[in-house]
């Protein structure tokens, strides 16, 4: 136990104590109700980046978001083999009957930076292989031309990645079935944590706009693929 108490773990242990003494007491009835089950408002797929806090961003309580996090907020396409992402989405859509799935990228994403600068991943072969699930993003950024600054390329990559992952989601049988039945909406967001702003891809305009201005911030079966190049800065 003494070794565990070194470093950042100390803060975590202190935090648990504060939670037990303060927060838990004020939300005791909520946690008591949650023992009987959950009815989340949405699946929220986002990056593992420590600067992103889905519940803080959306002002939601425990039990309201079904959260899937990994490096780069990626969802591998459906295949014969199982994946944690596929299983999570399938459970959420089929068992929990969730009607909204949000793919939320974020500014200054290290995963997208690595995708655009593969030489930086030389000592991280697992990360490099994982990012193949966003390979189409590179094509989209390259198609925009050499005139973009590195910052603009990264911003475009973050946007395009959410659209690529939306298309991957559509390959999963549970998602395809729910969308065909009109029971599921897919949303692509980008969170700028340094400003607190969130942009959403408007399926009608085929570009990203501030979330509050999006008139069609989700996809229906009739919509054409978002795909790479579906949105430009």
From TrEMBL:
Annotated InterPro entries: Beta_CA_cladeB, Carbonic_anhydrase, Carbonic_anhydrase_CS, Carbonic_anhydrase_sf
Pfam families per record: Pro_CA
UniProt: Zn(2+) binding residues: 47, 49, 106, 109
Record's catalysed reaction(s): hydrogencarbonate + H(+) = CO2 + H2O
Gene Ontology biological process terms, A to Z: carbon utilization
UniProtKB keywords: Lyase, Metal-binding, Zinc
Top-level lineage group: Bacteria
EC number annotated for this UniProt entry: 4.2.1.1
Cofactor binding, per record: Binds 1 zinc ion per subunit.
Cofactor: Zn(2+)
GO molecular function, one term: carbonate dehydratase activity
Family: Belongs to the beta-class carbonic anhydrase family.
Function: Reversible hydration of carbon dioxide.
PANTHER family in the record: CARBONIC ANHYDRASE
Identification of the protein by name: Carbonic anhydrase
Source species: Fimbriiglobus ruber
